[in-house]
Amino acid sequence: MGTVCPSTTPAQYMVFFFGLYVVALGTGGIKPCVDQYCLDDLDYDRIIKNIERGEARISRKDEIMKAIGKKLDRYKNPWLELKIQYGQNKGKLYNEECDRFMICMVHKLGYGNWDELKAAFRTSPLFRFDWFVKSRTTQELARRCDTLIRLVEKENQEYDERERQARKEKKLAKTESPSSLKKRKQLTMDDYVTSGKRRK
After folding, report:
1. Per the record, which residues fall in region Disordered (predicted)?
2. What is the tens place of the pLDDT at every residue in 21-40?
3. Apex CA 149: angle with CA 144 and CA 151, to 5°?
4. How far apart are CA 12 and CA 14, in angstroms?
């Protein structure tokens, strides 16, 4: 079979490129066309803010995963032993077993995978007859996880503070040599003796 269209002649090429040249001259060249129709529509500040928001979300997700990992590392078997210090945020609807499972599964699946978390609750034999947990939506599970994560982060801060204080006390105990302890004892004995002499 032959081609339907005849081949292009050199004269047709010349007319085509001359037309492009005239259009380019009439609009002031190619760059002003691009500036006018494309680049002005792009809002650079908005794009940069979106990028910064996305990066902040990613770094927050990393912080959350580190906080959960730090909490779980304190237990030999967190699936059974994990304790959460609730304070005033205990809640009446979720039990401790459910919260423990939720924290461990978020650590396993990753923060933000709420559909997988919901599927894990539905397939777990621990919650076979817990219709309340099985009927929660992904948004409700996400809200509960955020509450638990805030509690875990607060607990981690308190734990770090206690650890820092213990290290400081241990360092002070190490710096006090036995001779300084003898001097301190001697001073107290001298005070006792001098105070006894004053009484006489």
Report:
1. 157-200
2. 877 777 665 555 555 555 44
3. 100
4. 5
As given in the structure block, the two tokens for residue 186 are 């001697």
CA distances from 109 to 81, 120, 148, 175 (A): 20, 10, 16, 46
DSSP letters, 130-182, are -HHHHT--HHHHHHHHHHHHHHHHHHHHHHHHHHHHHHHHHHHHHHS-HHHHH
Distance, CA of 163 to CA of 167 (rounded, Å): 6
What does the pLDDT look like over 151-196, one tens digit per residue? 999 999 999 999 999 888 888 877 765 555 555 556 555 555 565 5
| Cα(86)–Cα(102) distance, integer angstroms | 15
Cα radius of gyration (the chain): 36
Q: What is the pTM of this model?
A: 0.62
